Amino acid sequence: MDFAAEMKRHVARVERGLDLHLPPAGTRPARLHTAMRYSLEAGGKRLRPVLVLATAERFGVRDDSALPAAVAIECLHTYSLIHDDLPCMDNDDLRRGRPTAHKQFDEATALLAGDALLTHAFGLMAESYAASPALAHALIRELADAAGSRRLIGGQMEDLLAEKKADASPEELEFIHLNKTAAMIEAALVMGGLAGGATDKNLATLRRAGRHLGLAFQIIDDILDATADTATLGKTAGKDAKADKTTFVKLHGLEKSRALAANHTTQTLTALRELPGDNTFLTALVESMAQRVN
Amino acid sequence: MDFAAEMKRHVARVERGLDLHLPPAGTRPARLHTAMRYSLEAGGKRLRPVLVLATAERFGVRDDSALPAAVAIECLHTYSLIHDDLPCMDNDDLRRGRPTAHKQFDEATALLAGDALLTHAFGLMAESYAASPALAHALIRELADAAGSRRLIGGQMEDLLAEKKADASPEELEFIHLNKTAAMIEAALVMGGLAGGATDKNLATLRRAGRHLGLAFQIIDDILDATADTATLGKTAGKDAKADKTTFVKLHGLEKSRALAANHTTQTLTALRELPGDNTFLTALVESMAQRVN
Question: Across residues B145-167, what is the average pLDDT?
């Protein structure tokens, strides 16, 4: 398997799906729909939607039937970035190498574009899977749970609270990363499995794989924030240290953080091996993520 | 029928449902869940959830099976108020007679509490109607459509844009009111019908009734903003005139606005009469709303 080519194929499908499944920029009100597309089209790694598509394909999906779920999770992720960048949150001017939504438009438009992307994530799945209400229901339930007040938004809230304290505890950091980051990566694998008709046992294994992958991803992100530059990241680097934010790197040091990330990567691969069938692409994807900091 | 007693019964059910179907205030993170409940428990007329319950009951629902849908629409409505009150939007300090969420907590908490209520609206229905995926799907689809970028959020966006212009046209005002206000009232009636197993024909009639009721409601709101005081409204009165905002009253004057509201009320009642069965409570509710400005 040519990993780079496979990755490119999946990303191209995601880009096409985003264009296909978002209202055209000229849809009234044009400013709102333009802002929604501006943030979605800023690029990024498309990790979550690629995980949906690759997992669905792994479970036998050969057509575009997982694409709306992939688009929905990218809409959800993008909304969380738009709101996270707002002045009352992280107050960031740069995202994926471009001005953040509230810089490009204004705060109110960014707020509403985020709200609209969040709502669209659910509406799109309800619409696209109308012929399979049970699948629509399972996908929506999974995404709403991962994105809700106990998980994604809960993680963002504790992240904000932790920034105001001198030191967050390892336990608080774990809560934040499990929910702010790992929840959506876990959901991506599970949603791919749902679209592919995976059994409950395999869905549970996908959930475990996603949890470890999400934790590895966040630790790697912390390491990169501490070691890479802004141009490489496409977002402001060194922010965590500047804000004296508690991260894995601050709490455990670089070496221990690398070891922790490697451990979660290993556990991800172990979980994937428990699944029947061909893991070639998912394994290569997990390993390519780990290599970013090795 | 004792209208006041019936109204009280429905509102009490809504209040009980809100308490039952929201995570406890102490759920981690407590600040987030406390903020979600703070805004929900601020009261208000509970018009949308009462419409869901009353419509469902009218179509034969005798148990609490419409309650999660009613709670979901109130979560959705409350999120839209929290975000609408933020400094980058209407910048309002007072809502339902209490400090707005960002005044009581802070902007970031208010933003996240709004996001969480929006997400919870969908998650709650996915969870509560898990045994009836087709109903869950239909309810979620209806709410996502009404709350999406072409309707509720689209209306909010055009409302903001209109405020920056010297004069909004009657056509722009119609778009704003149809979407910012009428969409959710329409959805309330349709969701009640869905929970009650109404036929497609009756659902279409409910949609038409909801559209006229929503427009009547918004015109009445404009009239009250121009004529009532802050204590009566529980929110800042005279805001529209102060902001030189285009409203029905500014565009058409008080008399014509009253006539327009009366016309939409009549059309609501006409639509309701097309439904088979007993309209006593819904008719009384529509009339009580109209009487607020007569």
Answer: 92
